[in-house]
Design a protein that fits this description.
359 residues; alpha/beta; Rossmann fold; 12 helices; 34% helix; 17% strand; elongated
């Protein structure tokens, strides 16, 4: 019976090549892919699965993942990206999956020195130690630069057929892809929204003002224009019809949230929808209504009607004052990098919970 391993498959070129290198040594593989809340998801992992002939299981992140974003043990990168903690979380889930499917080790496409926040020697050691995967996590692209793993020491894998790639250059991977006849190569990217300044600053704003990340809040930070209206309230304003529809869906799903949520929509003019998340004071309502008039290009002076809906409210109110650009800019949660504006608590992040899988 062939030895069996689980490969973490993102669909990028690195994980695809790692699969090829291990398959060449007669190892049976099962793919594991994470459908992330903050990942720019594509169908690349499914393509890798089809081209390599390996089954793939897709898992979704849990509330525990959101908790580690708030308070990562190893800190954030430049944005709100807890890269090392994220890898520990994923490998912890992968370890449970490995045990469920009867595999004996894990395979990762990580490359030594490629990513500054999660692919250094010390990060690899922390990941292996904190997940209990010491000796069981094979990184085929950089294996010769790292201590031998258990599969190598036991002769399951021939270390001489593994590689010694390091650094940020992709030329070795491109050459190897050509060797395997791989021509459809995804553009290199972290694929993680947490590294983007706009999303990172919105998360920092949420945490700074005493809120917490859950699935609903996570969805709000991924769309629209964002404004800090008051200390106790922020606004999310749609940029197009698709975002307006998403804002309506989020309002419908706001249910019994601990903070009040108010939906504002144009009643007699064309303009964006908006969520006011937090205390809906008269001033806050007027400010967000002024945003709708501004982005609806109604101008000031002529009365326009805005529908207000919340848990206990459904009414239409006339407003005449559209915010000008200077007022908008003063309230806008910035999209550029804001250094040192918030640092997460360094207490230990919780570890991976039970695996939930789905097709």
């Amino acid at each position: 019976m062939k030895p069996k391993a689980v490969a973490l498959v993102s669909g990028g070129i690195d994980s695809t090549l790692a699969v090829k290198l291990v398959q060449e040594q007669g190892i049976a593989l099962e793919g594991l892919n994470f459908k992330g809340l903050f990942h720019c998801c594509k169908d690349d992992a499914a393509r890798t699965s089809a081209e390599s002939g390996i089954p793939i299981t897709i898992v979704s992140e849990t509330e525990e993942y959101l908790q580690l974003i708030e308070s990562p043990k190893y800190g954030w990168g430049r944005g709100a990206n807890p890269c090392t903690d994220c890898r520990i979380y994923m490998f912890g889930v992968a370890k449970k999956f490995m045990e469920q499917v009867g595999a004996s080790f894990l395979v990762s496409g990580e490359v030594l020195g490629q990513r500054p926040n999660s692919q250094r020697r010390d990060n690899f050691r922390s990941i292996d130690r904190d997940t209990g995967l010491e000796g069981l996590l094979v990184r085929p692209l950089s294996a010769k630069l790292l201590p031998p793993t258990k599969p190598e020491l036991e002769g399951i894998l021939d270390r001489e057929k593994l590689l010694a790639i390091q650094g940020r250059s992709r030329k070795p991977q491109m050459d190897l892809a050509a060797h395997y006849g791989i021509t459809d190569i995804p553009t290199p990217s972290t694929g993680c929204m947490l590294t983007e300044d706009a999303v990172a600053n919105r998360i920092k704003d949420v945490l700074t003002h005493g809120d917490h990340l859950d699935f609903w809040v996570a969805e709000t930070v991924k769309l629209g224009r964002h404004f800090r209206v008051t200390e106790g309230a922020r606004a999310v304003v749609g940029r197009d019809e698709a975002e307006n529809l998403r804002i309506r869906d989020l309002f419908a799903g706001s249910g019994e949230r601990p903070r009040p949520v108010t939906l504002l929509e144009p009643d007699d003019f064309k303009g964006p929808a908006a969520l006011l998340i937090g205390e809906a004071t008269p001033d806050a309502i007027e400010t967000v209504a002024g945003m709708l008039l501004r982005y609806g290009k109604q101008g000031s002076g002529e009365a326009r009607h805005v529908r207000l809906q919340s848990r206990d409210l459904d009414e239409t109110v006339a407003f005449t004052h559209a915010l000008d650009d200077a007022a908008l800019d003063a309230l806008r949660i910035p999209s550029e990098h804001v250094p040192g504006s918030f640092r997460p608590d360094r207490r230990s992040a919780p570890r991976a919970a039970a695996v939930g899988t789905g097709a």
